[in-house]
Amino acid sequence: MAKFAKRIANMQASADVIRQLFESMTDPETISFGGGAPAREALPVELVHDIASEVLTRDKRGIQALQYGNPTGIPDLRRAVTDRLLAPKGLTAGMDNVLIVSGGIESMNLVSQLYLEPGDVVLVEAPTFVQAVQIFQLFEARCIACETDDNGLVIEDVEAKIKKYSPKMVYVIPTFQNPSGRTTSLERRKALAELGSRYDVIILEDDPYSEMRYSGTKLPPIKSFDKTGNTIFVNSFSKIFSPGSRLGYIFASEEIIRKVYDVKTATNSHASVLAQIICAEFFNRGLYDAHLKRICDIHRERRDVMMDCIAKMLPDSIKAVYPDGGLFTWVELPQSVNTTALLGDALAQKVAYVPGREFFVEDRDNHDNCMRISFGGVEPEKICIGMERLARVIKARL
Amino acid sequence: MAKFAKRIANMQASADVIRQLFESMTDPETISFGGGAPAREALPVELVHDIASEVLTRDKRGIQALQYGNPTGIPDLRRAVTDRLLAPKGLTAGMDNVLIVSGGIESMNLVSQLYLEPGDVVLVEAPTFVQAVQIFQLFEARCIACETDDNGLVIEDVEAKIKKYSPKMVYVIPTFQNPSGRTTSLERRKALAELGSRYDVIILEDDPYSEMRYSGTKLPPIKSFDKTGNTIFVNSFSKIFSPGSRLGYIFASEEIIRKVYDVKTATNSHASVLAQIICAEFFNRGLYDAHLKRICDIHRERRDVMMDCIAKMLPDSIKAVYPDGGLFTWVELPQSVNTTALLGDALAQKVAYVPGREFFVEDRDNHDNCMRISFGGVEPEKICIGMERLARVIKARL
To answer: Which intervals hold domain Aminotransferase class I/classII large (chains A, B) (predicted)?
Structure first.
């Protein structure tokens, strides 16, 4: 049979992990700390029902919902993005700076289509979001890891690697990072924007979790310090509205958005208009503030229960990140424990997580003692039961 | 600023045309025979309203609609594809042969990601669908045109060019082709499937229009003659359900679908679940047959009115394809008339079409006398008014 392109071979390894992630979400008896889904209780089903019932009539909007749209996205949703999502973060955007995409993953795919040539280097955090790496590899880029600590990317290491590798892009999730739950400090945000400008590197800032803050103080995005347009800010509606709608957006200079328009046209024309209209109404009717409070309350409780369970059930020698928001904590076991091997024990006990090595692009063997634990999709009582199972499995290996 | 990838420069030219196409749809005074949209009167707004109201409740399906889904698409919609769309075409597909995509354009993008390396050759019809060419060029493929006549691709020319260029793929819209409105004959369908198998070339069969047949006899798809899996059958729900939902599907061997799964995951995870559930219900409630009859009745009338207008209003020296279905006819003016120059006159008279040269990848100057006329999106009375305007403009140039 006709040969697949080279890029397909590049992505094989991590695709299997993604497949497992999706599949672990479907066994009802397994308590899965593996997926990255938000709480099902936080999904605005009733609000979407009411909006859909009202807009889907044979007037202008009902027809608009089912007819072809514009690759940029519908104006109502772009306006919601500029006024209700970007402005509160201190980001001033015009309508022509925003393009609606079909979910956060697609924003990274489109930016990759726009910039990456085979062999280009992308600097990523260690650890980083596995699906982003998969996308960069699909475009035959080489991902190089930069050091991180509790305050995010270590700037000296990023600068040294910019000089050494002349990367096209630095990919960073500065707030409640996936997988580590860590947040990049204010100083480092400034420094990253400046590095992008000074060395003419794209800083791809991915911000799906920052609205879900349960404690601590809000920080401005890297993009707010960008004076040259080198930072491209991408975001998803998956956590604050609904993952299944598949909506997100890209905020960048008009020049870049015009090119993204062409790539979006050749990828899938535009995001589902029905989903866009419902999402736009959700924001423009002013339903978001109360909904966000509800989301944060639900997930804060889960974060608190999870961190209590870790403190009570796991030995003190085990370190866990305390996340001020988002969906994840990152647990480091003693070096003697291999979390990939441990996963078999865990699945047998009907509890799941993602082994830490999956989130590293280099030096994976040195991170075999880590795991990502996702608390967002699990009810509080089940978090306790799941963590009892996991603690038992871990202790048996200590 | 950081440089765009080479692939972006490749697509520039045609992207401007697409942009114009989208924009010509928005001036309310212009009667546009330019776009490829189906009749707004044919959109199932009420059915979608009723389905959305019923499924969006806090039970399993309401939650499913808003939560993450599987890259393959929801089983209910894949089942609707195998049983209600493929089986009636004589195509036997298992659930694992079908993957749901975000619109027909995306199916071509994903297949291109799967197969095309820079420099690969794709054979296309002359004329062909301009957005497909844009996608192949985005993947740095070289498009080579093959001869067509009233029966579709000229097989001898396709075989000669397979031998000469060793293409990776042959792209073909065999039924009510965009832009020509022509249909590939039964013998040539068989021959194309056999060429794919004999020379190990992918035959990418794009079938968005075949359900919209207003006259003549149904023909089996190329895929029905494929014995080796070399034909990949892609389709869209845009014409038979709704363009704005952005849904389509790929039907291929399990081996290919497994790889498309990986690429879909890295493109945008999965199609909008809300749109998928509504579309699946539409088919599984048995609403499609009556809806399709309605679509065909509406568009048949438009086809008839358009062909009458052409016969009555344009001189006999002007040739037009009589399409047995779909949305397009193809008009050839005397060689002395340049349809790109004529478009300025037409727009001044508030009527639009797409100049023929845009649909050719080679030898464009020899097709400057052609135009694509799309009748699907225009009400019958307006077709007459628009054609009066266009006839006046054309006659002034004869």
So the answer is: 64-389
